Amino acid sequence: MPDSILEYFQSQIGKSVEKSSASLGNWLNGTFVDVKEGEMTVSFVVRKDMTNPLGILHGGAASAIIDDVMGMTVYALGKEFVYVTVSLTVDFLDNAKEGETIYAKTRVVRNGKTLINVECQLTNEQNKLLAKGTSNFVATSIKTSL
Fold first, then answer.
1. DSSP class per residue in the chain
2. What EC designation does it have (predicted)?
């Protein structure tokens, strides 16, 4: 068993996120690409059930990807208490079609005692910026567990 949450996530590189404790994360079904302290990259294949009527990645699905990966990045910090999203801002800059692989790349901007600020870039295989998001996470009174 890994010694930390970060080490656990690092042991999952190349594996699907299908065993997430979050049902939404299971549905998104990303694959861990890179995990470092305060940073994470997860890839996703855009499926038909993730698209809007135009056949491109739905903004809600893109927002869910951004929020979920930022949440995992915060969880991997190994804080004593669980942090939850209290704000989420997403800018949609381009689109992704069904079948495309996209990447959510996160970075902790500020790691505070009660508030953590994180940013995420959603890109395609050509590294074209599709969306970017920022979020604040606040500490709860719920103890963290692996």
1. --SSHHHHHHHTTTSBSTT-SSHHHHHH--EEEEEETTEEEEEEE--GGGB-TTSBB-HHHHHHHHHHHHHHHHHTT--SEEEEEEEEEEEE-S--BTT-EEEEEEEEEEE-SSEEEEEEEEEETT--EEEEEEEEEEEEEEEP--
2. 3.1.2.-
The per-residue pLDDT for 30 is 95
* Residue 41 to residue 64: CA distance in whole angstroms: 15
Rounded distance, CA 131 to CA 92, Å?
A: 4
Is the pLDDT at 71 greater than 70, yes or no?
yes
Q: What is the CA radius of gyration of the chain?
A: 15
Segment 29-58 shows an average pLDDT of: 97
CATH number of 5-143: 3.10.129.10
Q: Which residue has the tokens 């989420």?
A: 88
The model's pTM is 0.94
Q: What are phi and psi of 107, to 5 degrees?
A: -155, 130
